[in-house]
């Protein structure tokens, strides 16, 4: 067994060190398992793999609650063992996605800032029975030093009857001190979250737990299964350039400070590309208040442009992770990880006035956004934190390519096939073709701006045709729609493989 | 002219007292006019009526920004004079609604908590040029004592170049002291809103203005054109009873304090009925943190059940208003009015853990809510504060009758024709038939619970049929929808006058 005694700083706890199999044996079918992990970062690996073996043999299922998506050793292995009955609040794993979309897994897609409190309130189907949390180390007092993410771990540890800590020796000890753990009280006793700047520290550098509350400690040395980022393509570069043009004008008009406001940027390649684009921008002294810290943020730090980044998870590419570990002494001065309840807090997004930048699957001419469903039915990943930020930011952007599947799909449609963010929540749309600033506009005005600046030329005439016919048929009503045609583009794609006529 | 000199407490200001016509003469076409008023309460009347006369003769238009809906002397008179080019953020007036739905008025339907800050940020098409604010009195220092609502007046007064104060002698002086005006700073300097209980006072009892900033003062004695509330019918009584049953069980399960959490209740008859229902409930020491204070709240105060109510507007029926005026000495101890930026603040809704209760036009089997559009196209009123509260409350309810138009419409549909609140935001649905608790459920589970407990028996088989065929056609995908049928109920109603086959 890997020796982790130097990382378990209270010798009295050494007796609780067991194998992954022993720890996994305590888990019973039907339990609610709350784990650490947010994106493939900081999730437990050894105990989940051991439990997957039991799942295969004993044929039993649990409910899995995490911070957000987790790596293959947890989501992947459990799904492949048919071990998940319920899953929340977010996932990106191929095996799980398949079972969510064939009726095997009941999936609850939640705003990431809601999860910890809903779990504490008892709103998610009982309480957390077992918390499994990855740690760098356990302190003298039995408190937990987390690793590359914080997610919902503090609340899961607080609420669970059984706490299993996986001490992962692949995680460098320099992570210690990079966390700031604050758990709000619940209503009616909740106080203001005392944070007014991205670099404020308001909590403890560890997850409060205590010696007695720890059930088992398990050694592990499997690294985070981080995933490569797609190369930055011309479309992403164009979106990034449009964003910078737009922000330059906002500064000129006096609607934005010169060093911008704290940036939030979503998951995925476009989001990363947009952040990378800022490296060559004129802006200095940028700050970040976001969920995931991707490679682009390291570029900004290296370029001396980013003074501070606050997030809930480090989600770099494999090269990015190596780069982070190699230079952790410097990066740790400029990065803090918080529970997602704080990182994604609506209260803080609005107070700090963040610039919210997220990616959409599709949006419609009237300004509604679909972040989650393919053709109205198939779950992709989940809403994640996009709603937490989009709804509360100073300025809310959504990005998308104007087309998908080589042009067979227009990502700008008459009506979204699923809506995660409404017309009330979005300020600006950006595709590789341009920028639609819809602030203060009525639906019919929005439609014209979106079609003109964001839609692909192949689809512009079709969208305009729909809008004009709907206006005539309804007598220029507030939001002109033809109920029997609004979703016909999606129907056509399903039937013919293209949205084109 | 009505003598208002005793209400204008600085004699130096008496020289600024002019007629409504003189004040209205300063307004130019194309200006952004920000007025007081929220529901038909506390809006200016004399100057708008005078301006309406000019509009009729001179044929010019302005943009009207308010707190929410306002009375006929403003929305009605200006719309009838074709005097409104743009309107935001909410309305309920028949004349305006018509022009919004025939292309004459560009209407921007905003979350009510967003308006003041978006106006300060300069996001709504320039700044407020003229503020017209109803007042009880003007203090020695030139500060404004508001009347029956606060809305966005503090920000409009702060930003406008021209400030016109309408001193209304029909408003009793006892209103003085019932307001608490707090204007947050804008990012990056915003601080936590220092409120942790509904009865906390965090600001001034007046709108800060100052002698020099006041351009004109106009006397007025027209009362608020409050509107009757529909009688409480059996359906509303049934919804109220379902709510109380549900809350009783939450208390029993330990998920709710015995005196509940601060209540928010929406506009309209159902909302009022639900509050009235609490008079005969077992709960004591209730508190209210809401937008509009309707008759039901006076019932609760009289019954000794309500310790405190915080809102942004008094919106009683004509009898309710009389009752309030008659007993204002008592009611004023238990009611405070705040700017809507505070009353509807997401930060506070989440901190206080409010119980959010709003009414829907329709909702769908997967839990999305339409608050605004009839048959996907025609604007009814607007989203109002429903999103501010629904998204951030401790427990979020939506109410609706299961059917409308004598059964020709099912208010529970396969897919909403417009979405204002998403599946991520709603906990519980209530119709006269029962309660659907969808917390923690997947979409397919939600659908079964909603059909079973909320839908009308006439439509239950049709909804189940849709769901089952969609499940089969899509292989039990996450959110089973048939793109060519999802909106067919609305199409059918438009074509045949009924959703029934
Ligand atoms: C929306 C989201 C899926 C986009 O991710 P991405 O990596 O930039 O997207 P891609 O362009 O690679 O598209 C993903 C897939 O959707 C498909 N797609 C894109 N647009 C589509 C459309 N309009 N209709 C149907 N499919 C579409 C792509 O073809 C691709 O399919 P594939 O996996 O079969 O190749 C992702 O950002 C997400 O999950 N967002 C929701 C959560 C979120 O915003 N979190 C951030 C909060 S901090
Ligand atoms: C949704 C809302 C319109 C319901 O108001 P209400 O007074 O309870 O509603 P009613 O039952 O009287 O219905 C209003 C109209 O919609 C019609 N209607 C109701 N359900 C319908 C449906 N599913 N489809 C089409 N029309 C419907 C009614 O028939 C009625 O029509 P009419 O004016 O021609 O008679 C109102 O609550 C609202 O505007 N909400 C949005 C703002 C909000 O929630 N604010 C509160 C925040 S504090």
Automatic annotation (TrEMBL), chains A, B:
<dbReference type="GO" id="GO:0006084">
    <property type="term" value="P:acetyl-CoA metabolic process"/>
</dbReference>
<dbReference type="InterPro" id="IPR026888">
    <property type="entry name" value="AcetylCoA_hyd_C"/>
</dbReference>
<dbReference type="InterPro" id="IPR037171">
    <property type="entry name" value="NagB/RpiA_transferase-like"/>
</dbReference>
<feature type="binding site">
    <location>
        <position position="405"/>
    </location>
    <ligand>
        <name>CoA</name>
    </ligand>
</feature>
<dbReference type="Pfam" id="PF02550">
    <property type="entry name" value="AcetylCoA_hydro"/>
</dbReference>
<feature type="domain" description="Acetyl-CoA hydrolase/transferase C-terminal">
    <location>
        <begin position="320"/>
        <end position="466"/>
    </location>
</feature>
<keyword id="KW-0808">Transferase</keyword>
<keyword id="KW-0378">Hydrolase</keyword>
<dbReference type="GO" id="GO:0008775">
    <property type="term" value="F:acetate CoA-transferase activity"/>
</dbReference>
<feature type="domain" description="Acetyl-CoA hydrolase/transferase N-terminal">
    <location>
        <begin position="13"/>
        <end position="219"/>
    </location>
</feature>
<comment type="similarity">
    <text>Belongs to the acetyl-CoA hydrolase/transferase family.</text>
</comment>
<dbReference type="InterPro" id="IPR003702">
    <property type="entry name" value="ActCoA_hydro_N"/>
</dbReference>
<feature type="binding site">
    <location>
        <position position="385"/>
    </location>
    <ligand>
        <name>CoA</name>
    </ligand>
</feature>
<dbReference type="InterPro" id="IPR017821">
    <property type="entry name" value="Succinate_CoA_transferase"/>
</dbReference>
<dbReference type="InterPro" id="IPR038460">
    <property type="entry name" value="AcetylCoA_hyd_C_sf"/>
</dbReference>
<feature type="active site" description="5-glutamyl coenzyme A thioester intermediate">
    <location>
        <position position="291"/>
    </location>
</feature>
<feature type="binding site">
    <location>
        <position position="381"/>
    </location>
    <ligand>
        <name>CoA</name>
    </ligand>
</feature>
<dbReference type="GO" id="GO:0003986">
    <property type="term" value="F:acetyl-CoA hydrolase activity"/>
</dbReference>
<dbReference type="InterPro" id="IPR046433">
    <property type="entry name" value="ActCoA_hydro"/>
</dbReference>
<feature type="binding site">
    <location>
        <begin position="266"/>
        <end position="270"/>
    </location>
    <ligand>
        <name>CoA</name>
    </ligand>
</feature>
<protein>
    <submittedName>
        <fullName>Acetyl-coa hydrolase/transferase</fullName>
    </submittedName>
</protein>
<dbReference type="GO" id="GO:0006083">
    <property type="term" value="P:acetate metabolic process"/>
</dbReference>
<dbReference type="Pfam" id="PF13336">
    <property type="entry name" value="AcetylCoA_hyd_C"/>
</dbReference>
<feature type="binding site">
    <location>
        <position position="361"/>
    </location>
    <ligand>
        <name>CoA</name>
    </ligand>
</feature>
